[in-house]
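Subject: two folds for Thursday's group meeting

Dear M.,

Sorry for the delay on this. The cluster queue was jammed most of the week, so I only got both jobs back this morning. I'm pasting them in the order they finished. Each block is the input sequence followed by the predicted structure tokens. Could you check whether the formatting survives your parser before we put anything on slides? The first protein is the one we discussed after the seminar.
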Amino acid sequence: MSEQNTRLEDWLATGQGLKLLQRCAWIIDKQVNTVNTGGALPFAHYKEELINDLWIFLRELPLGRRQEMRQMVLEKNVSKLCTVISRMYVNRLYDLRRTKEQSGWHAYYRHVRSVLAAAPEITYRPFRQQSWYAWSETDPEIFHDLSDLDFASWPRPDLKATEIRKRESIYHLAKRFWNEAADRAGQPCLVSIKDLVRYVGSHFPQELLAPNIKGEHEMQYDDQGSDQASILEQISAELPPAEQILTSARLGQLAEQFTAGLDEQEQTIWFLRYDREMKLEQIAEHLGYQSAGSVLYQIRKVEFKFKEFCTLWPGLSAEDLDDRLAENFFLLVLENCKNKVGNRNTR
């Protein structure tokens, strides 16, 4: 087999792959202990187990992600690969730490919301009480509240219970649920991610009733088949919530920083859309745009900047999204835009 066709997992089994995993373990040690105010974690004890677990973690990633990593190897961009792997693994630690005491329903909701928030083909709208989405090229104006419905009579998803946490399956569920809701509403609309999770729970109740819904990599088994805590769970149990350490204390400063990076027109559009809750046509008329499509383009551009900024901060990025922090950050940015627009109007 040529080097070009070698799979990532085969390359990891080589001496070069082992050096990569050792380097990742060193980076993870530094990242975790930097934010752990309770003192250093016993990584000397965990080292070999951590390296083994990293290999399993990478082997169980989606095929597309493994191929991206293999391309980094072919391009000899190993430093970038170390950074990517380490960040993914640490994000998993934080996610386990956050959801450790939560119900299966809440753990699954957090996971679904994170997946959908990162999907470029989905319109994602975070608000104080809940997040909404639409599987549509347009920007729907209608929020379709389905909280009073019993979804047991809706068509059952053609998935196995073991598949509902997979990213591709969540896309499938989200698209199926949205199409059904839009058909019943008679038009494209925004639907609540909480309603999507209730829909999944009505057809897979046992999976969402479990104290913790385990992903493919979150639980290991001994030879007798009984559950035992993985290295991920052992380390995550000792971690403080990363978002409280790295992000929460700086949230106001981060909101100011993001708002300052927007031009006056972008600040105004953000304010009119999310504070005044104006429709696209109203914003276009207010700002003198020729069409609602021009406003939609500007909104999409600002939303992209918002997502890109959030990827830099634990608790705000899609991989480790935290409801409280994300909502507070969104509202702080909105308040900043409102103040700047108001100040300009009073000059």
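Second protein, same layout:
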Amino acid sequence: MKTSPRDNLLTLYAAALEAVEGRNCVRKYLQNNDLEEKPVVLLAIGKAAAAMAAGACDVLGERVSGGLVVTKEGHADIPLPECLTVLEAAHPVPDVRTLEAGQAVIELVSQLPQDCQLLVLTSGGASALVEALPDGIGLAELAELNRWLVGSGLSIIEMNRIRKSVSCLKGGKLAGLLKGQTATNLLISDVPGDDPAFIASGPFYRASSTPMNDKALPDWVVAMQQQTAAITNPTQSEQDVPHHIVASNRIACEAAQACARQHDWPAVYHPELLEADAGAEAVSLVNMLDELPGGVHIWGGETTVQLPPEPGRGGRNQHLALVAARQLAGRDDLWFLAAGTDGTDGPTADAGALVDGGTIARGEAEGLDISDCLARADAGAFLEASGDLVHTGPTGTNVMDLILAWKAE
């Protein structure tokens, strides 16, 4: 039976998500790599924490003696053994649960029995979900910092560099709490280059140095950094924790390409990451597609959006998709999907959107104005009216974003 380009793009998106799903990836790693013959304490943090913990338990079974799972609210709907404590916290703006989770993580690591080993399972989102702050900086300042970061237009690397500079557990500080116990960190990467120093802001990665952000920062952010830098880290451990990437954006993109070829759809993976402004990237991609052959085209990355003071509904993928839809208006040869791999886009429950040449007409028929929606960062309202939002629910992974295009041959 012949399928539509929209259905085909959703098929590719699903194949990409399955290839980087946390349970699958952790299970596969542990089946092929032995841990020491010691009881295992789990520490899973991030949007994919529950799925990753389930994968570890699938393989290790009763060797897991206990542990802690910290994830985003609504992302813990996976059965886990009773020996694991599950905490939920807010994302992207931290709340009091973030600080409670941070204290619980510190207690777990600092009180780890000598005859146990720590298996850390890390995925993106943990920067907002787990935190400990120096005296003099409180929840209000932390929340304001994260609100500013989300709308700043900074890249994830730049944001996490700043987060590390005001934290008492990020930037390798948790590794400093170990007292010689064995530890291993399995990571799902949501950063360009898969650098473990920046995935979840590197709580177990003891980088030799982290250069400060070279962009002009608000005075109040600089003051927070200076206040944190003045505090001496009481732990002096030099212990390094091995880090292993088990899922990444590249793996997701290659899985989409492999799925397309299984269906005999011509497919090209463009490996350069998309990291610039979402609107500018949308225009560039549509222009590029005009010069490319027909078939499937695949990109990955994480664009940025500078938000107005009171943004509407949506995230960077919905913004990118709506700008692309404006470029595609009236055409019948291009379909365009932009979606997060974690099932969310900005502070919304939608992963992104799948647009085509009729998107703008459908939205305008419902009384929406595209220019107004883009100016107010309210792409989600327009895309809901046009019927183009993509909803998956929590996916058990987080490897940045996927942009998939179908061009008629």
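Two things I noticed about the second structure. The chain has a mean pLDDT of 93. Residues 61 and 81 are 9 Å apart (CA to CA).

Cheers,
T.
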